[in-house]
Amino acid sequence: MFGYTPLLLWTVILIGLALSMDAFSLGIGLGAQGLRWRDVGRLSLIISIFHLLLPLFGVWIGDVLYAHFGDIVQKITAVVMMFLGSQMIIKSIQYEVGIEPPPFRAHLLQLVGFAFGVSVDALSVGLTLGTLGMTPVVPAAIFAMLSGALSIAGLYIGRQVNGRLGRYGQVAGGAVLAFLGLKFFW
């Protein structure tokens, strides 16, 4: 598919799932607060758009850096990926010990802020994809579809289950990102 080997395509899908875990966790947390269905759709659409555009921008930056600095950029972005994964795990542990996010109000600007917050990791992953020489469109489209679907799933589950599972999704996503960072390092 577009020059991707099955292994590379599965790697992109795993990265997309890892990136989408933040959106899933956010969805569970916000869904537990009784978010209106209209806002569920708006938030999921905004998250999908950010997960489409930020990796494309990141790939462009990665291409420019790789052209000037070569393999060292791949090592640096692998470290960034491991850092992002560990940060996701740390955030989930903080949530577990009682550091709660601020209360949610469904204004458009807040939806954009939440969506950007869970999508900013996609910029760094796009940077990584750029250093690996991948064409950006397929990964960005996969990231957008997965993040939209998982944010809707998280919002639905959150409405049903009262927000107790959010940290587990974040831990899983963080672990996948950290391990993929290790894979890219070697």
UniProtKB/TrEMBL annotation:
Cell membrane as UniProt keyword: yes
One family name in Pfam for this protein: Mntp
UniProtKB keywords: Cell membrane, Membrane, Transmembrane, Transmembrane helix
Database matches in InterPro entries: Mntp/YtaF
Coiled-coil intervals, chain numbering: none
Superkingdom of source: Bacteria
Annotated TM spans: 6-31, 43-66, 72-90, 111-132, 138-158, 165-185
The protein, known as: Manganese efflux pump MntP
Organism of origin: Sulfoacidibacillus ferrooxidans
